[in-house]
């Protein structure tokens, strides 16, 4: 059903909700090869609505919820169609689209754990005329796992180096690490907040969607008292497996700390950046004290100040972008969802139970079929 030359598309918008990232990927010898990429901008009012929902600032009635699911689905379809058009790829050459959707809530613990991604996959299949695989996280949660992170399997395939321990750090809205052991073991979890909080504070005080190069943070000073209060959050001390999202680390969470009072906005930005760097560095030191190599992907790779602080805190480890290892740091996640789509069609697992805590490997995702020609579809069922 699936061969080496078949093309797949991976689509994702992460917790930063900065853009829908699309990658056109083939799997020669099973290894992903990215042929084209495209970042589709969110309409700004839609992005604002999604962010306020993710941060628990707005409620949604059922009609609005249904509308939003379809609206996001159309945006994902447009991302895929643009990728096809820009790369000159006819849709019939694409075996399937793996669509992560937009997470608007992630609650992997409690009596009824759940995770919720929006972006109606039927809309994507209908508009693109390509089979779509979606809903990648819930089978893992149903099996007692966190449903996240799902990137470590691909990190291991692409970046593991025999006999060497390595860490892959993804700086998205939330930061997650993959620990690649010298013996081939793979661990991974969310360390805590990254761009999500930085973006939100920057938007509130600068009116800009993100702190380019960390310039706003660089103009301030870390407030040690606030930093200590933030680092006291119970999430940081939880042992893995663990995962989190913007429903936990958002501006309301920050505002709930009394230590915030009276601190200049630039100093808060500096402190939030330091919070990311410190929580990541401490997680790495604790999980894998001897690892010498930290490879970074995700949008935070472009935040010069954040990379400087990580380099300083992680020394003498070498901190580098995955770009230096031939892998585009901005589209690794999209490529991962192309890989997960292929795994689904091959009937192979997508989760790593050692990472997510699920009670076993699970085939992830559900198939939403492309429209078929009516007459031939009925003939296949024996109807004339
Ligand atoms: N030049 C830059 N300077 C600082 N931050 C940047 C820069 N470029 C991208 N980013 C950050 O990266 C984020 C997007 O990262 P991404 O990996 O797409 O996260 P997610 O997976 O959560 O969507 C942006 O919201 C922004 O915070
Ligand atoms: Mg993104």
Written overview of the protein:
This protein has helices at 44-54, 62-87, 121-128, 138-142, 152-159, 195-206, 215-218, 224-231, 234-237, 251-255, 265-287, 304-314, 332-346, 353-356, 374-380, and strands spanning 7-13, 19-28, 31-41, 94-107, 114-118, 132-134, 166-171, 174-180, 186-193, 293-297, 318-321, 366-368. Strands 1, 2, 3, 4, 5, 6 and 12 form a 7-stranded mixed β-sheet that branches. The chain has a 5-stranded mixed β-sheet with strand order 9-8-7-10-11, with helices on both faces. Helix content is 39%, strand content 22%. The chain is globular. It is an alpha/beta fold and 384 residues long. The chain folds into 2 domains: 7-148 and 331-380, Nucleotidyltransferase, domain 5; 152-325, ATPase, nucleotide binding domain (Nucleotidyltransferase, domain 5). The mean pLDDT is 95. The longest helix is centred in the N-terminal third of the chain and has 26 residues, at 62-87. The structure holds adenosine-5'-diphosphate and magnesium ion. Adenosine-5'-diphosphate is lined by residues 13-16, 18, 172-173, 195, 198-199, 210-214, 298-300, 302-303, 333.
């Amino acid at each position: 059903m699936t061969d080496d030359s078949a093309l797949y598309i991976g689509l994702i918008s992460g917790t930063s909700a900065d853009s829908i990232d699309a990658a056109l990927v083939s799997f020669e010898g099973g290894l992903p090869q990215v042929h084209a990429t495209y970042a589709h901008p969110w309409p700004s009012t839609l992005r604002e609505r999604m962010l306020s929902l993710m941060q628990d600032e707005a409620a949604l009635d059922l009609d609005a919820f249904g509308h939003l699911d379809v609206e996001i689905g159309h945006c994902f379809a447009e991302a895929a169609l643009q990728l096809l058009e820009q790369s000159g790829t006819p849709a019939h050459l694409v075996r399937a689209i793996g669509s992560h959707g937009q997470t608007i809530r992630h609650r992997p613990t409690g009596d009824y754990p759940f995770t919720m991604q929006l972006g109606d996959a039927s809309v994507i299949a209908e508009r693109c005329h390509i089979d779509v695989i979606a809903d990648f996280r819930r089978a893992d949660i149903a099996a007692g796992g966190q449903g996240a992170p799902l990137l470590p399997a691909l990190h291991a395939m692409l970046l593991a180096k025999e006999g060497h321990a390595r860490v892959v750090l993804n700086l998205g809205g939330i930061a997650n690490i993959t620990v690649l052991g010298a013996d081939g073991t793979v661990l991974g979890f969310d360390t805590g907040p990254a761009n999500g909080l930085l973006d939100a504070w920057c938007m509130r005080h600068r009116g800009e969607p993100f702190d380019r190069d960390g310039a706003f943070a660089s103009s301030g000073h870390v407030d040690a008292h606030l930093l200590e209060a933030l680092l006291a959050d119970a999430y940081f001390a939880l042992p893995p497996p663990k995962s989190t999202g913007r429903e936990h680390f958002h501006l309301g969470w920050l505002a709930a700390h009394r230590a915030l009072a009276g601190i200049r906005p630039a100093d808060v930005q500096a402190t939030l950046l330091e919070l990311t760097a410190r929580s990541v560095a401490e997680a790495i030191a604790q999980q894998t004290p001897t690892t010498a190599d930290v490879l970074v992907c995700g949008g935070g790779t472009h935040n010069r100040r954040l990379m400087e602080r990580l380099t300083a805190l992680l020394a003498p480890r070498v901190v580098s972008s995955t770009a230096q290892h031939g892998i585009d740091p901005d589209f690794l996640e999209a490529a991962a969802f192309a890989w997960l789509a292929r795994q689904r069609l091959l009937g192979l697992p997508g989760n790593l139970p050692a990472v997510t805590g699920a009670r076993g490997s699970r085939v992830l995702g559900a198939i939403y079929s492309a429209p078929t020609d009516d007459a031939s579809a009925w003939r296949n069922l024996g109807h004339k």
